[in-house]
Specification:
- The chain has a single domain (13-174), classed as Peptide Deformylase, CATH 3.90.45.10.
- Helix content is 22%, strand content 33%.
- The chain has helices at residues 28-43, 135-148, 166-174; strands at residues 48-50, 60-63, 80-101, 104-122, 128-134, 163-165.
- Strands 1, 2, 3, 4, 5 and 6 form a six-stranded antiparallel beta sheet that branches.
- Strand 4 (104-122) and strand 5 (128-134) form a beta hairpin.
- The model has no long low-confidence stretch (mean pLDDT 94).
- Its EC number is 3.5.1.88.
- Belongs to the polypeptide deformylase family.
C-alpha cells in the first residue's frame, strides 16, 4: 500500500465485490494492510473500516467504537481487527439508527440493524476469536461486514426519506 492510503469512494468497483478470505497470516502485505486500515480509520475519525475501503477486496475489518467528531456519543472499546468474520444474531430486535461511511461522505441515513450479534473471526495471527457485540459496536460490525459482501449502508435504508445531509445530521444531534 502507499504511505497514506486513500479511502475509496462510492462508485468504486471494489465496494461492490464480495471480498475474498485471508489464508496467509504471515504475508508481509497482510500486516501492512492491517496497519494501513488502522491508520486510515484513525486519521478519518472513523469507528470502523473494511479492507475494500482501501481498495483491497479481502475479508478484514476493524471495529473501534469510540467518541469521535463523527460519532460523539459512541461508547469506548479497544479496536479489534477481525479477519474472515462471520456472525450470528443474538437479539433479533432490529433498531434503526444513524450511520455514515468514510466511503460515502457528506450524508447520513437511518439504517436498521440487529441489536446484538455474536462474531466469530480470526485475529491478526490466525487465532480464533469470538465476541458478543451490542448496540453501537454491533451496528459498526454489521456496517463493516456489509462492505465484505459488496454492500454499503445505503443498500439497507428502508426509505429515501431516511437519508439526510451530514450538516443536517449534526444540527439534529447538537439540538
Amino acid at each position: 500500500m502507499s504511505e497514506k492510503p486513500e479511502i475509496v469512494q462510492l462508485g468504486a468497483e471494489v465496494l461492490r465485490q464480495k471480498a475474498l478470505p485471508i489464508d496467509d497470516f504471515t504475508c508481509a502485505k497482510f500486516h501492512v494492510l492491517l496497519s494501513d486500515l488502522q491508520n486510515a480509520m484513525l486519521e478519518s475519525n472513523g469507528v470502523g473500516i473494511a479492507a475494500p475501503q482501501l481498495g483491497v477486496s479481502r475479508q478484514i475489518i476493524i471495529v473501534a467504537s469510540r467518541p469521535t467528531a463523527r460519532y460523539p456519543k459512541a461508547p469506548d472499546m479497544a479496536p479489534v481487527a477481525m479477519v474472515n468474520p462471520r456472525f450470528r444474531i443474538v437479539d433479533d430486535n432490529v433498531v434503526k439508527d444513524w450511520e455514515g461511511c468514510l466511503s460515502v461522505p457528506g450524508i447520513r441515513a437511518l439504517v436498521p440493524r440487529y441489536r446484538s450479534v455474536r462474531v466469530d473471526y480470526q485475529d491478526a495471527h490466525g487465532r480464533p476469536g469470538r465476541m458478543i457485540l451490542e448496540d453501537f459496536p454491533a451496528r459498526v460490525f454489521q456496517h463493516e461486514y456489509d462492505h465484505l459482501q459488496g454492500l454499503v449502508y445505503l443498500d439497507r435504508v428502508e426509505t429515501n426519506q431516511d437519508i439526510i445531509s451530514e450538516s443536517e445530521f449534526f444540527k439534529r444531534i447538537a439540538a
